[in-house]
Amino acid sequence: MANKGFSIFRVLKTNWFLAQTNSKRTQKSGLKGTLNAKTNWNSRVQGRWVAHTSPRFCRDVRAPLNSEQLGEGMRRCTSFAFEDALRICALAVGFSIVLCAPASARMMKDQTGRMVNLPENPHRLVSLAPNITEIVYALGLGDELVGDTDNCDYPPQATSKPHVGTMVNPSLERIVALKPDLALGTPEANRRETADQLERLGIPVYGVTASTLEGSLASIEDLGKVLGCEAEAKRLVARMQARIDRIENRFKGEPQPKVLFVVWYRPLITVGPHTFIADVIRAAGGVPIGENLKGEWPRLTLEELLPLNPDVILFPPSDSFSPSLEDFRGLPGWKDLRGVKEGRMYMVSETILRVGPRLVDALEELAGILHPVRK
Question: Which domains are seen in the chain, by residue range?
């Protein structure tokens, strides 16, 4: 479980880096706004290819390139592209894949804006993210899931499915061997490169994405339409919405504590205003301290954090944090924060990271932390 948690937050940290990098570039070019973590699925920016989350691409693209570095980078990218092309050709020949859409396919735009050739009745599904796996099971389609990722650990039955590798770098060979009708992915966890490669192998990839509670419910309904269980999806969403409404109404008019969610502590990274976690904090009756910060995963110095003085500090479920909660009480800067002084530091469950059916569980957990008297 610890390794799975670390893997998820490595994705979050890498997405933060990509978003910050491209935010600076858009500002330099006079463009307004910032690029979000979906850079993974829309990676062409300012005429250059942005580094993917794969470790082989992870270098600081903010640094200027000299001619020697640029030449080496082009040689490496050409080599990688050639290797990928060979792998795709080998897979296509080895598994006798017909690289064209079936006659019964229908064209649909997924939530990332991609046009996808979908089979009319997909019954062999591969999930490329844990939250999607949870949605598939919640819709009663667990038997139609033929594969998922190493990170898919809920419900327990998901762990017995054939695994296709990690979210960031799944194995194309394993996916093809499962002969899926449809793969399901999300830009929050997967690379656009993976989706494109699978499409070239004749495996359609439908992408869902959400940065709010409302968006997460829309994703469930959307998958219900795609997978032919629209009625069940609507019933599931109605039950979830009813629970969300009860929680939000419970804390109307109550004082709203300021909340720091620590994505990473050195350097300090928190959640920006347009992230799913920030929306959950607001719905639970709190105010994320990153409310007025730019970007999805803004970076803060301790000097910038001290005036914000959060009432509650939340940490992700990951062993990658070396200090314990008790250790934070003695760290310079941290010990002066109200949340540390009053002992309101909490390790939250992984459900807050899963944009799926259990998001209401995360909301109820967080509401109990922020408003313990009203729990």
Answer: 2-93 (no CATH), 100-240 (3.40.50.1980), 253-374 (3.40.50.1980)
